[in-house]
Amino acid sequence: MRRLLRWIAGALAVLVAIPLILTPVYILVDPVSVPMLVRYLTGQRVEREWRDIADISDRLKASVVMSEDGQFCRHWGIDLGALRTEVEDLFAGRPTRGASTITMQVARNLFLWNDRSFIRKGLEIPLAVYIDLILSKERIMEIYLNIAEWGPDGEFGAAAGAQAAFGIAPQNLPWDRAALLVTALPNPHVRLPGNPGPNQRRIAGIVEERAREYGQRAACVSPSGTLAL
């Protein structure tokens, strides 16, 4: 029994040490996500071309923030207001939405798994706070834009997503295509920006409208402190 407990404790220590060690490394090293690793190990296609954040459209950055995490530039990795609402909805029996910030999504993609569970959510929260402490907002967004799954056949990152959907580079996205690309993020295997249905176009229209009006709320991801919208 003692040997088993030591083995479990050792395994937990390794699991804790991995993000603690790798997160500072990712200040300079461009990471690979867990979903990408799984596809590599199972022989599936992976298409990812890393792009510096300066080489990705500011319209896409604004659209991502306004769609995924409107408080990204203001919180410390987690949105306490959204989490509070999530807990209240859970105990009231109302549908929950996840309350995942962009930083929490980065934590999940780099270190955890995708199946929804309270255990995973509980791990995401301290990881997101740690990531926000170690990495700049600009770097967190750069990583997010390069590891998010953006297509149905192993396309990861904005460059592969924009190329697969529209045949263009991610720095050349006009407003309508930037917004359409963002609509794929919840489920890139079903929502295809290059061939959107009416509901997807409707959602993209809402994203575009919000990003045009409030896009400068994402200015923390720009070295200049402002976005060229």
From TrEMBL:
It is an enzyme of class 2 (transferase). Keywords: Cell inner membrane, Cell membrane, Cell shape, Cell wall biogenesis/degradation, Glycosyltransferase, Membrane, Peptidoglycan synthesis, Transferase, Transmembrane, Transmembrane helix. Residues 43-192 form the Glycosyl transferase family domain. InterPro entries: Glyco_trans_51, Lysozyme-like_dom_sf, PBP_transglycosylase, Pep_trsgly. Its EC number is 2.4.99.28. It catalyses: [GlcNAc-(1->4)-Mur2Ac(oyl-L-Ala-gamma-D-Glu-L-Lys-D-Ala-D-Ala)](n)-di-trans,octa-cis-undecaprenyl diphosphate + beta-D-GlcNAc-(1->4)-Mur2Ac(oyl-L-Ala-gamma-D-Glu-L-Lys-D-Ala-D-Ala)-di-trans,octa-cis-undecaprenyl diphosphate = [GlcNAc-(1->4)-Mur2Ac(oyl-L-Ala-gamma-D-Glu-L-Lys-D-Ala-D-Ala)](n+1)-di-trans,octa-cis-undecaprenyl diphosphate + di-trans,octa-cis-undecaprenyl diphosphate + H(+). Pathway: Cell wall biogenesis; peptidoglycan biosynthesis. It is a single-pass membrane protein. The chain crosses the membrane at residues 7-29. It comes from the Bacteria. GO terms for cellular component: peptidoglycan-based cell wall; plasma membrane. It is found in: Cell inner membrane. The keyword Transmembrane applies. Pfam families: Transgly (PF00912). GO terms for biological process: cell wall organization; peptidoglycan biosynthetic process; regulation of cell shape. SUPFAM superfamilies: Lysozyme-like. One of its GO terms (molecular function) is peptidoglycan glycosyltransferase activity. Belongs to the glycosyltransferase 51 family. Peptidoglycan polymerase that catalyzes glycan chain elongation from lipid-linked precursors. HAMAP family: PGT_MtgA (MF_00766). This is Biosynthetic peptidoglycan transglycosylase. It comes from Devosia geojensis.
